[in-house]
Design a protein that fits this description.
Radius of gyration of chain B: 24 Å
Distance between the termini of chain A: 27 Å
Oligomer: heterodimer
Structural class of chain B: alpha/beta
Number of strands of chain A: 9
Helix content of chain A: 25-40%
Number of strands of chain B: 20
Largest sheet of chain A: 5 strands, antiparallel
Chain lengths: 186, 583
């Protein structure tokens, strides 16, 4: 692909726009899939990934249009450019799928994930956990004399970073929602 | 709107969709539907002997008519027995509507008698499936099922109907009132991309058309347009196993089938071309051989109705998503408007090269006066049935490849074979499905004895419904293709690839009440075939053939097209350890 083909409003990953469509570099892509909200549809989408040997790094799904009976699936997957193109085409041809968007390729997007962290400890470790939580803008949603539950929203990388810091301070459990994502702009 | 039971809705929706025949097998969970079938005469029900047979019959019906096939099975084992047929239809893009009964809604999930998670089991082997829990939605789901099965890339769909939904009453939604599904795949090709294809047609020095089952699925007009395009460009044309008949075997530009057991000239043309125009084929591994060396010097164009087929295994230069008929119409329109140009200086050289390849006569085999060679049997069958209103089905294996090589198909919808899935046991039930659709035609199942035994119970169906199908069994008492691979790849250790306890096929025919013919002398072959053709009823033709004949040409697995084996040259060690992993 020539440099002249760079799309307007490319992402922070805009170097990918220069990528070789036949390349063998593994990339992470976030796909938004709008589907009929009917039983079995999620299974059909997930079955496509397992049946054809594609990766799922993160998956979220919820109804987004009650009247239209539509759900939005956000899936983060990995693969070479030809594999990503194939995943998109395979999703697109499923009967209950209305739209597929490769948010990574189509332009800038916002990605957020919500996570809950249970951290238990006493004394200095407990104070340090609270201090770090403030820096990361995590909220305390439950507290006992020996534990906190922090709630944090951010990119998956930010959540990973916070988890790494909490581990030596008594991290007991994490619950993550998986990524929700939207393209930027109108 | 009319009120009726769910069971009646099923039959009414089938009538509204123009269905004339249903292949099926009753059971507890579909009794209400069978009761409705009993009380009407518009739809014929063909009682099969095993549900796999029902689905293959529906496939044979669909492939030979271009209309969707319909099968009806009960819950649990009825549905699980349908799975092979569904997968076969999915791989070969055959439109099917399979209706299964289910335990009543209030029993789902309790491991009830004959309960199975049918939509769960069949999800990966259907284009779409539905569990209908509300009678009010049943009719609309039925109409949507026909829409989905027949639009875009055709495929099988399944509707699972719990028994209480069949008994309950609701308003019937007629076909016209049914909500049209949002599923509206793209059928018109991009005109700018088609212009690029026309550029390739105008400049190609060594072009080849590589056509597939998509031409046949697109309808009869597609074959007509293809023939026009071939005649006007004078380009050579080859086809996959699935596409045989879309261009006539007697046509002067015909190179024969390509692929693993394809013709020398077809495969070398694919390897040496500078422009490959793929129309409705999918670069299957039986076609490409080693991808890295597949047609290394060509620009490739690909017309396919399924966007996921494009660039799936082979990167192409021009990928056109659309229905073959509409795309070919536009190709012809643009190309003619631009003056119907081709590279007339270069083409004769290309044809001269092809003529040299043809002169190799790759289908030559060593005939015998004492034992019937399978190739000879098919040559005689071809000669003695030529020009007849003939439909051919096959099982899977050596005989299937020989049939594709030695029988000529002049028209689409005349050749029914399990290509993608390679389902042994397909041919006999498929032949019955074809015969039901074409009662007066000659329907022959070219079979191997091992495949044929897999669904031989369906001879009962042929007898009951007076389907005079001819079962032309090339009997080598071996699993021929398995044995061939063991010879070439596994040091001639014939592990479990022969049968010692085959039935006496003539007595078997008598037991079913039809005609049996056994033959082992080449001198008697013609008379025996004529006897088979003259008999007004099903025939089991036990043709004892050479036991260790190999099917050539053959591109060994893991090899490119130009490393094809032609005949009984030294074949030892030709397939490396890498190739041996492939199938």
């Amino acid at each position: 692909m020539s440099a002249l083909n760079i799309k307007k409003g490319s992402t922070s990953h805009s170097a990918y726009e220069l990528r070789d469509p036949n390349g063998d570099v593994i990339e992470s892509h976030t796909l938004a899939v709008v589907v009929d909200n009917e039983s079995g549809v999620l299974a059909r989408v997930i079955g496509l990934f397992s049946g054809r040997g594609y990766n799922i790094d993160s998956l979220t799904v919820a109804e987004v249009d009650h009247e239209g009976h539509l759900s939005r699936i956000t899936v983060v997957t990995r693969g070479t450019p030809p594999v990503i193109a194939q995943i998109k085409a395979q999703l697109d041809r499923l009967v209950p799928v209305h739209e597929v968007h490769d948010l990574t390729a189509e332009g800038p997007s916002v990605q957020r994930e919500l996570a809950l962290f249970k951290v238990s400890g006493k004394g200095e470790a407990r104070i340090e956990a609270l201090r770090l939580a403030e820096i990361f803008r995590a909220n305390v949603v439950d507290s006992t004399l020996e534990s906190f539950v922090f709630e944090m929203t951010g990119t998956p990388e930010k959540i990973d970073a916070f988890a790494d810091l909490m581990r030596p301070l008594g991290l007991r459990e994490i619950a993550r929602t998986g990524v929700a994502a939207l393209s930027r702009g109108a | 709107m009319r009120q009726m039971t769910g069971a009646r809705m099923v039959v009414q929706a089938l009538k509204d969709q123009g269905v004339e025949v249903v292949f099926g097998y009753p059971g507890g969970a579909v009794l209400p539907i069978y009761d409705e079938i009993f009380q009407q005469n518009d739809i014929q029900h063909i009682l099969v002997r095993h549900e796999q047979g029902a689905v293959h019959m529906a496939e044979g019906y669909a492939r030979s008519t271009g209309k969707p096939g319909v099968a009806l099975v009960t819950s649990g084992p009825g549905a699980t027995n349908a799975v092979t047929g569904l997968t076969d239809a999915l791989m070969d893009s055959i439109p099917l509507i399979v209706i299964s009964g289910q335990v009543p809604t209030f029993m789902i999930g309790t491991d009830g008698f004959q309960e199975a998670d049918t939509v769960g089991i069949t999800r990966p082997c259907t284009k779409m499936n539905w569990l209908v829990k509300d009678t009010a939605k049943l009719a609309e789901t039925m109409h949507q099922a026909f829409h989905v099965a027949t639009h875009g890339r055709p495929g099988p769909v399944l509707i699972d109907i719990p028994k209480d939904v069949q008994f309950a009453t609701a308003d019937y939604t007629p076909r016209e009132a049914a909500k049209v599904s949002h599923y509206q795949p793209r059928v018109r090709g991009d005109e700018a991309l088609i212009a690029k294809l026309v550029d390739l047609i105008e400049t190609a020095e060594r072009p080849v058309f590589y056509t597939g089952g998509g031409v046949i699925n697109s309808g009869r007009t597609a074959s007509v347009l293809l023939r026009d395009l071939v005649a006007e460009t004078d380009f050579p044309i080859t086809s996959t196993l699935m596409g045989l008949g879309s261009y006539p075997a007697s046509g002067k530009n015909w190179l024969g089938m390509l692929g693993m057991h394809g013709l020398y000239e077809a495969n070398l043309a694919m390897h040496g071309c500078d422009v490959m125009i793929n129309i409705g084929a999918r670069f299957d591994d039986r076609i490409t051989g080693r991808i890295k060396d597949f047609s290394p010097h060509s620009k490739k164009a690909h017309i396919d109705i399924d966007p996921s087929s494009i660039n799936k295994v082979v990167r192409v230069d021009v990928g056109i998503v659309g229905d073959v008929t509409l795309v070919l119409e536009e190709v012809l329109r643009q190309w003619r408007a631009r003056g119907s140009k081709t590279n007339r200086a270069a083409l004769p050289k290309w044809w001269a090269q092809i003529t040299e390849w043809r002169a190799v006569k790759c289908l030559t085999y060593k005939n015998s006066s004492t034992v019937i060679k399978p190739q000879y049997a098919l040559e005689r069958l071809e000669a003695l049935t030529k020009g007849m209103d003939r439909y051919i089905t096959t099982e899977v294996g050596q005989h299937q490849m020989w049939a594709a090589q030695f029988l000529g198909f002049e028209d689409p919808h005349r050749w029914m074979t399990s290509g993608g899935l390679g389902t042994m046991g397909y041919g006999l039930p498929a032949s019955i499905g074809v015969q039901v659709a074409h009662p007066d035609a000659l329907v022959i199942n070219v079979a191997g004895e091992a495949s044929w035994l897999m669904n031989m119970q369906e001879m009962g169906t042929a007898m009951q419904f007076r389907a005079p199908v001819k079962q032309f069994i090339l009997n080598n008492e071996r699993l021929g293709m398995v044995r061939q691979w063991q010879e070439l790849l596994h040091g001639e250790r014939y592990s479990s690839s022969w049968s010692e306890a085959l039935p006496d096929f003539v007595k078997l025919a008598e037991a079913f009440g039809c005609k049996g013919i056994r033959i082992d002398d080449p001198a008697d072959l013609d008379e025996a075939i004529k006897e088979m053709l003259a008999y007004n009823g099903p025939v089991i033709f036990d043709c004892r053939v050479e036991k260790h004949e190999n099917c050539f040409p053959m591109i060994p697995s893991g090899k490119p097209h130009n490393e094809m084996l032609l005949g009984d040259a030294d074949t030892q060690g030709v397939i490396g350890s890498k190739g041996a992993v492939l199938v």
